[in-house]
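Possible regression after last week's pipeline update?

I re-ran a chain I had predicted before the update to compare outputs. Posting the input and the new output here so someone can diff against the archived version. Not blocking, just want to make sure nothing changed silently.
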Amino acid sequence: MSIMKRIVNIFRSHKEPQPAPQSTIPPLEGASVGDIMNVDLEEYVISGKVTYSDRGFAPHRYAYYLQSGRDIHCLIVEKGRSYDCFMCRFLEGGLDDPNDVPTRLELDGETTYTLEHQRTDRTQTQGNTDFRSNDEVMVWRYFADENEHFFLQWQDGNFVGMVGTRIPSGEVKIMKSKK
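New output (post-update):
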C-alpha cells in the first residue's frame, strides 16, 4: 500500500459522523402521550391525544389532553397554512341528539357564541381521551370574538363541550420524553 493511500485512509477514519436525520414531523403534530407540554409558561403532562382527519387525507386537527395535578385541560391544534391553537377547559352539560345542536349558544348569560363551522372526522386516539379510535366524531366550532371559542364534539351518544382561548402557537413548547 502506498503512503498516499494510508494518509487518505487515516483522514477518512477521522471524518465526523453524519448527524442522524431530524424528524420531519412538526413538534405540534408529533407530541405524544408522556411528553411534557409547556403552554403559556405552565407545564403539563400529555395524558391523551386525539388526531382528527378526513378519510384518505392527512390529519388536520389534534387535541392534547393536558394534566397538571388533578386539573385536565385540552389544547386543540388546527393545522392550516399556520397552526391555530386553543387552550380549553372542559364544561359539563348535556344534549341528547346531535340534530338538536343550536347555531347560537349562550353561556352563563354573559357570552354568546355563534356557529363557525361543523364537520365530521375520523379519530385516532392515544392514552386517556373521551373518544374511541377509528370512529367518526362530529365537531362544532363556535366563536364569540377572535380569541374566545367554544367546541362541541359528539361521538356515539357522548357529547364533550370545551370553552377555549386562542393562543399563539409560539407559546407552546414540547419536551419529548425518553422512551
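Follow-up from reviewer: compared with the archived run. The CA atoms of residues 118 and 140 lie 4 Å apart. Marking as no regression found.
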